[in-house]
Every structure is written in structure tokens, then in C-alpha cells.
Specification:
Layout: E1 6-8, H1 18-21, H2 27-39, E2 42-44, E3 51-53, H3 60-78, H4 80-94, H5 100-111, H6 120-132, H7 137-150, E4 153-155, E5 162-164, E6 175-177, H8 178-185
Antiparallel strand pairs: 1-6, 2-3, 4-5
Helix pairs in contact: 3-4, 3-6, 6-7
Bound molecules: zinc ion.
Zinc ion (ZN) binds next to loops.
Length: about 190
């Protein structure tokens, strides 16, 4: 009797912290990274018919304000340890120790349940400070895209025109059979 055994392995890739890799990267390259991430969120505005990005930028100053805003909101709910817990999870998301889905689930079920209740625009205003805490453009855009899966209605920044943002998601899962594992190990 032949037994076929299939093992599904999902590997979490760790991501270098922006604070670390940005020191070793040229400003031009960082700028390109920001532009490329921003282009993932580009839509043609129905008002002025220009291709524009709805990506949210950030800066050290904006991040400081956003952190204070989040701290106040969470402290009111459950105190200092709750605030610390959130920022630890944010750090885990930055290095992909929490995947975007895991982090987003925590945001909506534990920290900011209102993200699921309000209109898409109201919910985005709630997400905004969290995006601003992410200096890494890839992490920021990934979280924004995850949010848009649940809240596809967006306003363009130029004309405040409402659009429906559609995303096609391709999930790649590596399926390795026991035979493949043997051949990989040998
Ligand atoms: Zn416009």
C-alpha cells in the first residue's frame, strides 16, 4: 500500500526593520521604494482623470503625533499595558513576526473594533495613525491594501471623488510532498 503524505509549509519571512536598513540604503533608493509602494495604490481619479495614488505617506514628525494619538485612545480603553501590547504587536508586524492578516485581525478584534463598524471613510480615518507609525513603505502599503479588502470605498486626494478600489489577490502556497522534501534534503 502506498501512502501519499502531503505537508503544507508556509514560511514566514522575516523583514529587516526600516530603522536598520534605511541607515545602509541611499536616499535615492529609499525614494524609489516609497514611489514603487505608492504606485500599488494608484487609481485614475474620476474627477480630473489623472492617475493618482491614495497611499498615505509619513514622516518622523507625523509618526510622533500618530503614536501619541494611538496611545491616548488605547490608554483610555485599558491602560498602559494595553498601549505597550499594541506597540509590541506593531513591531512584530514590522518584522513580519505577525503577518498582515494576523496583525489586521488583532487590530479589528482587540485594539480598534470600530474599524469594522463605521463607513469605509470613517474606518480609514481610524487606520490613518496606524499607517503613519509605519516608516517602511512596504509595510504601510501592505496594511493599507489589507484594509481595502474590507473597505474598498476610497476618496481621491485631489477631487475627493469616491471610488471603489478593487484588488486582485494571488496567494502562492508552496506545497511540498514528502518525496520533494527528501530530494531537497539530499
Ligand atoms: Zn482628481
Amino acid at each position: 500500500m502506498i501512502m501519499i503524505m502531503t505537508i503544507i509549509i508556509i514560511i514566514k519571512r522575516r523583514i529587516l526593520k526600516y530603522a536598520d536598513y534605511s541607515k545602509l540604503t541611499s536616499p535615492e533608493l529609499l525614494n524609489t521604494l516609497e514611489k514603487n509602494s505608492s504606485s500599488l495604490l494608484a487609481i485614475t481619479c474620476g474627477g480630473c482623470h489623472v492617475l493618482r495614488s491614495i497611499a498615505q505617506g509619513t514622516s518622523s514628525e507625523q509618526m510622533k503625533t500618530a503614536k501619541a494619538d494611538i496611545e491616548t485612545k488605547l490608554h483610555k480603553k485599558k491602560g498602559k499595558s494595553f498601549v505597550n501590547e499594541f506597540f509590541q504587536d506593531l513591531q512584530k508586524y514590522e518584522t513580519n513576526d505577525l503577518t498582515v492578516d494576523e496583525f489586521y485581525d488583532k487590530l479589528t478584534t482587540r485594539y480598534f473594533s470600530n474599524l469594522q463598524i463605521g463607513s469605509d471613510i470613517e474606518s480609514f480615518n481610524m487606520l490613518l495613525p496606524i499607517l503613519m507609525c509605519l516608516m517602511d513603505p512596504e509595510r504601510r502599503t501592505t496594511l493599507h491594501l489589507r484594509f481595502l479588502r474590507e473597505h474598498p470605498r476610497v476618496l481621491t486626494t485631489c477631487c475627493r471623488k469616491e471610488h471603489w478600489y478593487t484588488i486582485t489577490i494571488i496567494t502562492i502556497i508552496t506545497i511540498i510532498t514528502i518525496n520533494n522534501i527528501t530530494s531537497i534534503l539530499l
